[in-house]
């Protein structure tokens, strides 16, 4: 276990910052929560219906969540289905712990 008093390496800090930034919006948190609880791929239309947020807004937020790999996109013909990335979401509490100075555990890789 690394109990260093040094700050996180810059690359690691930037990765964690991108995760926190992606969740720094109530709509994105709602989308992540919806997909995590649903445990099944959903279309943009289904997410719009469940969230009450407009289609263009949902699409914008899904793009941001996909960039940090919290959400995975499955193409089916001309449509896309979105699902939670369980590996990445399981990393998130670890990211918060590391940022707050707890020892770095062996965390799953966020793919």
Automatic annotation (TrEMBL):
Pfam families: HTH_5. InterPro entries: ArsR-like_HTH, HTH_ArsR_DNA-bd_dom, Metal_resp_trans_reg, WH-like_DNA-bd_sf, WH_DNA-bd_sf. Keywords: DNA-binding, Transcription, Transcription regulation. Residues 8-104 form the HTH arsR-type domain. One of its GO terms (molecular function) is DNA-binding transcription factor activity. SUPFAM superfamilies: Winged helix' DNA-binding domain. The keyword Transcription regulation applies. SMART domains: HTH_ARSR. This is DNA-binding transcriptional regulator, ArsR family. It comes from Nonomuraea wenchangensis. The lineage of its organism: Bacteria, Bacillati, Actinomycetota, Actinomycetes, Streptosporangiales.
């Amino acid at each position: 276990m690394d109990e260093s008093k040094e700050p996180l390496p810059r690359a690691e800090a930037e990765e964690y910052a991108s995760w926190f930034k992606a969740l720094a919006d109530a709509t994105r948190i709602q989308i992540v929560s919806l997909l995590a609880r649903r445990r099944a791929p959903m279309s943009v239309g289904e997410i719009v219906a469940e969230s009450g947020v407009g289609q263009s807004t949902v699409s914008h937020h899904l793009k941001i969540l996909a960039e940090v790999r919290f959400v995975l996109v499955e193409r089916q013909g001309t449509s896309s289905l979105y699902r939670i990335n369980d590996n990445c979401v399981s990393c998130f509490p670890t990211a918060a712990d590391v940022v707050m100075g707890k020892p770095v555990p062996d965390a799953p890789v966020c793919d």
